[in-house]
Amino acid sequence: MTQLPAKTERKLGLVIDLDTCVGCHACVISCKGWNTENYGAPLSDQDPSGANPRGTFLNRVHSYECQPDDGPAQLIHFPKSCLHCDDAPCVTVCPTGASYKRVEDGIVLVNESDCIGCGLCAWSCPYGARELDAAEGVMKKCTLCIDRIYNENLPQEDRVPACVRTCPAGARHFGDFADPESNVSRLVAERGGMDLMPEMGTAPVNKYLPPRPKDRIEDKAATLETVAEEPTGFFAWLDRALDRLPGGPTGNRTQKETETL
Amino acid sequence: MHPAPSVILFTTFSGLGFGLLFWLGIGYPPVTGMTAFVMFAIAYLFAVGGLLASTFHLGHPERAIKAFTQWRSSWLSREAWASVVSLILMAAYGAGLVFLGQRWTILGLLGGVMSLVTVFTTSMIYTQLKTVPRWHTALTPVRFLAFSLAGGALLAGQIRPAILLLLIAGLVQIMHWMRGDGALAASGTSLATATGLGRIGPVRAFEPPHTGTNYLLDEFVHVVGRRHSLQLRVISLILMVAIPVALLMMPFNHVIAFLAVASHILGVLVARWLFFAEAEHVVGLYYGKRHA
Ligand code: SF4
Ligand code: SF4
Ligand code: SF4
């Protein structure tokens, strides 16, 4: 059914911390691995070892450079997957009912046996979160690892999306945004979690934490006064002695050169 | 957007076919018997041929029937319904004209209106997309309907309405281009809003997520050079409006009519190629491929 539910009981989603993501792409690989071996059609690759490899991924990491007015440019790694939007255009445009948003937890899914592969849902997603699999001809997207988070065969610590479980930097957090006391809701409140392209009116559930302001050494510690330009006493002697050793400015000179000085 | 041949053929020919069905439905020209048969055959060839071409870009055409289920929310589903309903209505109306020499006026009017509704639903598939600011305007359905009516009049041999409608359609097309060129910038979406990083300073795409291409780049990121685009716009206007109008002004004969139709179709194909190739999907921003 491609009409959106008026309200979902829970709002499961991710918080992605742009401050701590190191751009390692581990989440990309663990996502591809889990979702190729489990729920739904595998994420195929075309020409994987050839000259023009390409394939289906549900999570991709971009890198951007920001240039503040004062201070050096900042490099920000930017993982991007489905944001499980509350007002998901990808759901309402679907002609077959294959795309839907679950009432119980707000996860946006594709029923692959109903999908005709028209691609319209991918056209309607501003974030590029959907990719049509070239081998299967059906639309693939992040499932929030629906086959992990409710999977009682897995140990408790593994019942989170594969990307969250994998991230070595702790940059990805999974939780229920409908609960104001959840880990993700608190992170969003404390760190000013933001929406991507809010003007599109998609009301994304996933939030991004902006990079924290960078420390600047001038603000942290005053530079000490210079006490002497040239060393004196013991240090002056040490300086000269070290200079004479091999490798020092005078250490490699021949006897003759030293005499002429 | 990727200018897929199947979608270009589909929108061009089904637009023309349903345009012709509209004119036949309202009784211009008032044909019966063999002449009616030929005209309906052309209309169905175009309309149905276009619809069939559109299934070529589906991953699973064998499940296309499921596309009828979501008419409450999906314009694509509504298009499926509208096209089938108008084709059935017009088939019944056409059978009356061809085999019984009977004109069931109400049925024809209904079928004619439904044919235009079909074109409207097609245009709404594109218009609804906020992600493609160039398409997200009331001018898009106006443009589709104007060309469908003009091309239909041309095919139906309605010389005076055809001249007038071709000129109007050309004008609408020019307005659509002019508005379209500033649409992405006016939409307010930029790499800054896409990443939320604009508050730090100007954002630049530094490294793409993958070295090769992917579905997103192939489907959504197509860049047409400015000069190239201007040339093609002029060519399409000459072919789809100027030449047919000039030919229609001449004393009528079948060769001239055929040339006018052929030129028009070629021009619409070029304009439709531009419609897709020039459309900037906002996902291109993430790849640093769009400069609003
Ligand atoms: S991110 Fe895209 S695919 Fe995911 S729910 Fe939002 S619009 Fe749909
Ligand atoms: S590609 Fe599949 S899921 Fe997407 S709109 Fe078409 S039928 Fe629906
Ligand atoms: S695994 Fe974590 S740190 Fe690495 S790219 Fe993904 S989010 Fe960033």
UniProtKB/TrEMBL annotation, chain A:
Xref: InterPro entries: 4Fe4S_Fe-S-bd, 4Fe4S_Fe_S_CS, ET_IronSulfur_Cluster-Binding
Single annotated GO MF: metal ion binding
Transcription regulation listed as a keyword: no
Residue span(s) of domain 4Fe-4S ferredoxin-type: 12-42, 72-105, 106-135
SUPFAM superfamilies registered for this protein in UniProt: 4Fe-4S ferredoxins (SSF54862)
Pfam families attached to this UniProt entry: Fer4_11, Fer4_4
Protein's name according to its UniProt entry: Fe-S-cluster-containing dehydrogenase component
Organism: Jhaorihella thermophila
Automatic annotation (TrEMBL), chain B:
MF terms (GO), sorted A to Z: dimethyl sulfoxide reductase activity
Name of the protein described by the UniProt record: DMSO reductase anchor subunit
Entry keyword set: Membrane, Transmembrane, Transmembrane helix
Transmembrane regions: 7-28, 34-59, 80-100, 106-126, 230-249, 255-275
InterPro entries: DmsC
Biological processes per GO annotation: anaerobic electron transport chain
Annotated source species: Jhaorihella thermophila
GO cellular component: dimethyl sulfoxide reductase complex; plasma membrane
